[in-house]
Amino acid sequence: xxxxxxxxxxxxxxxxxxxxxxxxxxxxxxxxxxxxxxxxxxxxxxxxxxxxxxxxxxxxxxxxxxxxxxxxxxxxxxxxxxxxxxxxxxxxxxxxxxxxxxxxxxxxxxxxxxxxxxxxxxxxxxxxxxxxxxxxxxxxxxxxxxxxxxxxxxxxxxxxxxxxxxxxxxxxxxxxxxxxxxxxxxxxxxxxxxxxxxxxxxxxxxxxxxxxxxxxxxxxxxxxxxxxxxxxxxxxxxxxxxxxxxxxxxxxxxxxxxxxxxxxxxxxxxxxxxxxxxxxxxxxxxxxxxxxxxxxxxxxxxxxxxxxxxxxxxxxxxxxxxxxxxxxxxxxxxxxxxxxxxxxxxxxxxxxxxxxxxxxxxxxxxxxxxxxxxxxxxxxxxxxxxxxxxxxxxxxxxxxxxxxxxxxxxxxxxxxx
Length: 417
Known about the structure:
By secondary structure, the protein is of the alpha+beta class. The protein is 42% helix and 19% strand. The mean pLDDT is 92.
């Protein structure tokens, strides 16, 4: 059984914990609200670049090799991830080594010292990463989908960044970005596993209590997106056999969590599990796709519901999906909603059986700025009514509001007109 707690330090640093009694390991997440949405035009890719050079930025450790060697010596695991909302640095270690890792991390966070040699090396690595991604059609489809769905809004800044901008980055410009966005008031340290909350607070206060905010932090006003806009279509020709499709729908942000929970049940209905509606229809009955997935994601000020697949018969797949969406609201009755709740809640509980699982707390900080655990999500899901699900399906997931992205050999724009 997990217990969830939250605390704030006087400097604004947030501490979230998920404690599992008896767990020997812990996962430590250093999370900054400093994702690609906060980048200026001449900073496209800085969050991604910071992800790469972060572990070479301390005074005690002269390179990321030294940092990684230290973590390796403890038998630990180290990784990082950047998205539109933030940057997340992850270290998994045994709980008995927590203080050693907090000592390392405090040196990096409080005493950033970006080195030119390390920066130039990581620029080359990112260049190779971007080149590799350019050959990944599923990745490219997802990238274009993000850009098209949030066109004209900061959320359209893809985390990958711009090769040209990254190439021009200097240690000084990156340091300025770090100090502007990675202040304690925009940061959370999240622990999961065998570290009690009071022990986490004690260690974090000891090592990060003197971390001070700076005078460069920008004030952000989250920009609301108009949900009355009509749909759209984007096509990019690619000489491949399959067409990659992403069906996108704008939805609500974190302030409308009850609607997001209703959409989560629809997400389960459409593509979660082998017997879900679209997998049954498109794969099992018609053999049109190998796999299909749907995602219900939200940010502080907007949300997106998407369906993604690839097929050699894109016109037929688009036609089937649009027909299913057109009649979607008619599929829900009380019995169906009860079954969907059980399916969705059980999948969440199953995911959360891992003591080191902490993504729910990471996302709650980035999107809500507060502790919002799986337990909280389940409590809200239980309150969703059949009427709620019908209403959100009619409001958001209708063909007229579809933003369709297609990458493949044939322009299928006439299919959605």
